Amino acid sequence: MEVDGLHYVQYHSSKESTYLAAIRQLISNDLSEPYSIYVYRYFLYQWGDLCFLALDREENMLGVVISKLEPHRGGPLRGYIAMLAVKKEHRGKGIATKLVCMAIDIMIERDADEIALETEVTNTAAMKLYERLGFLRSKRLHRYYLNGNSAFRFVLFVKESAYTLRLGYDDHEHEEQTNQLEMPPSA
Asked: Do residues 81 and 135 lie in contact, with contact meaning Cβ atoms separated by under 8 Å?
């Protein structure tokens, strides 16, 4: 898919020799966690089709999102956005939004109940992006990263059933509670 002169492509293992070094370089420049080659291969070998790249006309990598999808603790099918990076000089152009939306769309196509991620509490641009896409902050993770920074976990509830599971009640109870809410009198 081409948008504004950029190619958005789904990762494929046949292109590992072309893309893996560039993915590692881009992510190591932007994210505070040091990831080994094994972490990248863990995601790319099992869920490469949930990972997307933004390339310019010369095939230079400008952005990447790495994701996975699997059952979470025997419950909902949870998508997970593990890594997102866009070259500094190309931020603010909608590249990250497009990459995340592509990952979300394919996870929804594959029946995800929810999609989760973590981001540093100091990364206001990322937090605004995820909130704009409908993610909710679910918890603060104190000293989550190796650099000592804390994180917020964000969750996008794709299906109402995943949301009600998290709250600890079923759809019928949710309906009853919703019906009991009263609107304040208008002034």
From this structure: no
pLDDT confidence bin for 181, thresholds 50/70/90: very low
- Find the range with the poorest average confidence among 38-47, 103-112, 129-138, 157-166: 157-166
Main-chain phi, psi angles of 34, to 5 degrees: -85, 115
Tokens of 13: 């293992």
Q: CA–CA separation, 167 vs 169, rounded Å?
A: 6
CB of 65 closer than 8 Å to CB of 52: yes
Query: Residue range 70-77: average pLDDT?
Result: 86
Q: What's phi and psi for 53, nearest 5 deg?
A: -125, 145
